[in-house]
Amino acid sequence: MRIALCGGTGDIGEGLALRWAYDTDHEVLIGSRDPEKARTKAQEYETELDSRGVDRTVKGFANEMAADRADVVVLAVPPYYVRDTVEGFAGRLDRDTVLVSPAVGMQRDDAGLHYHPPSEGSVTAVAAAAAPDEVAVVGAFHNLSAGRLANLDVELDQDTLLVGDDEDAVDIVRMLAAEIEGLRPLYAGPVANAAEIESLTPLLINLAKYNDELHDAGVQFG
């Protein structure tokens, strides 16, 4: 399977790219608004993998080109870029493409981070509204620590919650998540439930801020 990480030069994009390239045989594409930046980052990821004895090719493209080539497109962009990013390559998607949204709307003040959902109710819902009607959207990977994800020396041992209205698309993302060692995907219902999941992210970051032993905290359900 071919996975495009649009915004794959950022923190969550780096972590997912490295984990999928390290743990699976899926083809990984890095997308960016700046294709040269995407190619540079792709080479950095290849170098990191090579240092661990993994010979993988990671390619970089403009977001539109990466999305056009992919079976699964991950929106690894800040929440305020999600709508424009999807609209920018919407014409490159088809009914077999699965769109994945991990972004979370947050605001910071002196106390910490606070959940700040868009008017649609969640960033996942924003992605679904911007995507063509025939393209399935799945929310996933919201509550993962990007730093922990990108450090291949660290075992994840965490859960990721999935939301989506299309059963087949959810199954694809569940499979891709489960192939990352130490990550357990759990289905949490339709896109309408995304806000409850996204709101966990600022909580986890605040826990890490106020408790040194919870640095890079994640969620795990018993």
Report on this model:
- Strand 4, helix 4 (82-89) and strand 5 (98-101) form a beta-alpha-beta unit.
- The protein starts with a strand and ends in a 12-residue tail after the last helix.
- The strands form 2 sheets. Strands 3-2-1-4-5-8-9-10 form an 8-stranded mixed beta sheet, sandwiched between helices. Strands 6-7 form a two-stranded antiparallel sheet.
- It has 9 helices and 10 strands.
- It has 222 residues and is an alpha/beta fold.
- The radius of gyration is 16 Å and the shape is globular.
- 38% of the residues lie in helices and 22% in strands.
Number of helices: 9
CATH topology: Rossmann fold
Residue stretches low in confidence (pLDDT < 50, at least 5 long) are: none
- For the record, give the distance between the C-alpha atoms at the N and C termini, rounded to a whole number: 31 Å
Identify the CATH architecture: 3-Layer(aba) Sandwich
Strand content: 15-25%
Descriptors:
222 residues, alpha/beta, Rossmann fold, globular, two-stranded antiparallel sheet
Brief overview, please?
This protein has a single domain, classed as Rossmann fold (3-Layer(aba) Sandwich). Helices cover 38% and strands 22% of the residues. The chain is built from nine helices and ten strands.
